[in-house]
Amino acid sequence: MPPPALPPPVLALLAAAGFGCSAVLVRRGLFHAAPLAATLVSVVFTTLVVCGLAAATAPVSRLLTWQILPFVVAGTVTPGLSRLALFLGVHRIGVGRAMPLVSTAPAFAVFLATAALGERPSAPLLAGVAAIIVGGAMLAWRTGSDLPWRRRDLIFPLAAALGFAVRDNIFRWGFRDYEEPLLAAAAAALASLAVMGTDGTGARGTGRLRLDRAAWGFLAASGLADAVAYVLTLRAFKGGEVSVISPLVSTHGIFALALTAIFLRDLERVTWRLVTGAALIVLGSVAILRAASP
Fold it and tell me: Which contiguous run of DSSP H or E holds residue 199?
């Protein structure tokens, strides 16, 4: 008798924990690798896992259809380029600031969808925006006891959030005509691998591909954690409502902050401002998703 399936909300929370774990592993790996090299290793491992699962559970012939094109387009943005922006953010401002800012991705996704549909924002949606702005300002607060970092580097996790939001909207549009989520994820991963491979080829001899042996374990584990979290997210969306699953997955910033406090105490300080700012961003994203739900 097969074991009972986990409820979609539980799958979403496990995915959030996986994304948070991945960021902590990357932080360690980036001591021994350049962000571009780290991204390439992570994307390769993610692609191998997702493609393996897709091949084992779905007819691969379903990739040979024009309906797969939206997911290929999405793959030119993420996971590769968006993950590179995320890794740059983690490298320059730390996990504790970068991951909560990436939690704004659902807010970007809703705004993109709203703009495309021409809808007017409601009061709860605007309240969510205000919470995110205040939370972001708290993350940008720098004290004398902080390790050196530049406020302008906050743009990297925000760019990653925007990339993930673009992916989500393209995926939602593509799933109107396509019903194989794992194959869609595999197509996006393969397209992303091609983009990052091209970038890596052009970066030879520049130092952007520095990769010490000590980094491999951390980066491989990070790619595996990302792949598992990605699959869990797709499974959660398949069985649960977007208005429930998206906010739960977006709590990865809180998970990352908690893991940072436990495993990265020698590298980052988790202050009350970081915790409060992260909480406001997550709550703001939840409010926006709730306000946008039908």
Answer: helix 181-202
The closest of 160, 139, 37, 56 to 97, measured between CA atoms, is 139
Q: Could you tell me if 277 and 99 are in contact, meaning their C-beta atoms sit under 8 angstroms apart?
A: no
Alpha carbons within 13 angstroms on the beta-carbon side of residue 212 total 9
Taking the C-alpha atoms of residue 284 and residue 133, their distance in angstroms, rounded to an integer, is: 9
288 assigned to some structural domain: yes
Taking the C-alpha atoms of residue 87 and residue 244, their distance in angstroms, rounded to an integer, is 28
| Mean pLDDT lowest among 90-104, 126-140, 188-202 | 126-140
Query: What does the pLDDT look like over 147-190, one tens digit per residue?
Result: 567 788 889 988 988 888 787 778 778 878 888 888 988 998 99
- Cβ distance 231 to 269 under 8 Å? no
What burial class does residue 3 get, using C-beta atoms within 10 Å of its C-beta: 0-12 exposed, 13-18 middle, 19+ buried?
exposed
Q: Note whether residue 2 is domain-resident.
A: no
Examine the pLDDT at 118 and tell me if it is beyond 60. no
Q: How many domains does the chain have?
A: 1
Domain that holds residue 272: 8-292
Residues 185-239 have pLDDT tens digits of 899 899 999 999 888 888 887 888 899 999 999 999 998 898 888 888 877 777 7
Number of helices (H), then strands (E), in the chain: 13, 0
